[in-house]
Amino acid sequence: MKAAKGILAASTFALMLGSSPAWTAELRFTVWTGNEAHLAMLNGIAESFKEKHPDVTVRYETIPAGDYTQKLTFQLAGGNPPDAGWMMEDAASTFANAGVLEDLAPALNAAEGYDLADFSEPAMGLWTADDKVWGVPFSTSPFVIFYNKDMFDSAGLEDPLALAEKGKWDMDKFQEVAKALTEANGKWGFEFKDGQGYDTRIMHALMPPIRAYGGDVWSNGECGFDKPEAVAAVQQLHDMVFTDKSIVPPGENGDYFSGNAAMTINQISRASLMPDAGFNWGIAPLPTGPGGEAPVIGQAAIVVFAAGRQKELAAEFVAHMTNEANVAEMAQFFPPARNSVLSSEAFTASNKLIPAEQMEIVGDAIAKGSVLPSHERSPQLLAAMKPRVDALWRADANVEEALKAVCAAIQPQL
C-alpha cells in the first residue's frame, strides 16, 4: 500500500509540475489522410522518434479533408486541441492571425543539423512572419493530370504526356480529347479533384483553368472572378459539363480511380491508389492556356497548436519529422520544400509507382508554379462564394453574370 501511495504521489507531483509521467507521453496529431500507405509511413517516422524519446507515442487522428478545418476549429474552441497537425494553405493566414499556432523557430533552430535555410523561401512564404515560423511545409504538391492510358489507346488518341512533350497540350486540346474520350468509351472524359469540384474542392476545380487563361480569383484585395480571363476559363468548363457532356456533372459520380473517367486532376499522393486501379495510367502537366504555363500548387504544413498540452515536445517532433532524412522519406507521396531533397535523385526515384521522368514533371511544376490563393478570411470567403458558385452549375446559367455575383458576395471580405 505504501508503494502504491508513493507511485500515486509521484504521478500527482509530476502533473503539478506541468509534465506528464513517461507512460502518458502521447502526442495527438491530426491529419486528413486515411490512406494505409500514408499512415504506415507516418507511423514509421513516429517510431523513429522513440530513439530519442522512447516513452513518447504519436497518435494520428484522421479527419476527412472536407471537414478538416471546421472540425479542427471546433476542437480548439472547445478546449480539446491536438498537440500538432496538418494545415491546409488556405487556412494558414486565418490560424496564424488568430494566435493559435506556436512559433516553431526556437525548436527548429535548436535541432542538430536541421538547416532551416534549406527550405525554399517561396515555399515558406505562407508560414513565416519576421523571425517566426508558424508551420513547416511537408507537401508542396502541384496538381497534375492523371490519365487512363488504356482509354486513350482504345480511342486512338495521343495521351496528355505525349501531347505535352510535343507542346500540344493546351486547354483547347484538353476540351477536344475529353469530348472524344467520352464519345469513344461511353465514360466521362474528365472528373474534378476527388469528385468534389462542386463542393469541397471548388477552388481546386476553378484555379487551374483560370490561371491557364492568365487570371486569378483575387489579388491585392480585388476580386478576379469577373475578369475576362476567369470568365473565359469558367465558360469553357461550363461548356464541357453541359454541352460536350465530357466532365462529370453535379450529382454524378465519376471516380477516375475505378476506371469510370479517363482523366482527373490530383496530386501525386493519390498515386498510392493506383495499384488497385486495374488499368495502365500516367501523369502529365496541367494543360497550358492563353496565359502560358501556370502550374497550381497545393500546399500543406505541419503546425503545433499554442493551446496544446505538450507544445515543446510537439515542436521537437515537428523538427524530427521535417529533418532531411524524413522529408526524403515523405517525398514519395508529398513533394518536398527542402531544396536538397527536391534536387536529388532520391526525389525522382522516391515513388516506385511513378517513373523518374514523370516525377521530373512534379519538380518542374514546383519550380514554376504558384500556391493556391490564401486569405486571412478564407473561411468567410468560401462560405460567401459557395451559393453563388452553386448557381453557376446549371445548364442555363449565364456564366459571366454568375461570376459577377461571386465577386459581389466576396468583395466585402477581401
N-C termini distance: 65 Å
Low-confidence stretches: 1-23
Q: Which series of helices and strands comes N to C?
A: HEHEHEHHEEEEHHHHEEHEEEHHHHHEHH
Please give the largest β-sheet: 6 strands, mixed
How would you classify the helix and strand content by structural class? Answer: alpha/beta
CATH class of the largest domain: Alpha Beta
Beta-strand portion reads 5-15%
CATH H-level homologous superfamily name of the largest domain: Periplasmic binding protein-like II
| Nearest-integer average pLDDT | 90
Task: Say what oligomer this is.
Answer: single chain
Q: Share of helix among residues?
A: 40-55%
Radius of gyration: 23 Å
CATH fold description of the largest domain: D-Maltodextrin-Binding Protein, domain 2
Q: What is the architecture of the largest domain at the second tier of CATH?
A: 3-Layer(aba) Sandwich
Beta strand count: 13
- How many domains in all? 2
Q: Count helical runs.
A: 17
Silhouette: globular
Subcellular location: Periplasm
GO cellular component, one term: periplasmic space
Protein name: Sugar ABC transporter substrate-binding protein
InterPro entries: Bact_solute-bd_prot1 (IPR050490), SBP (IPR006059)
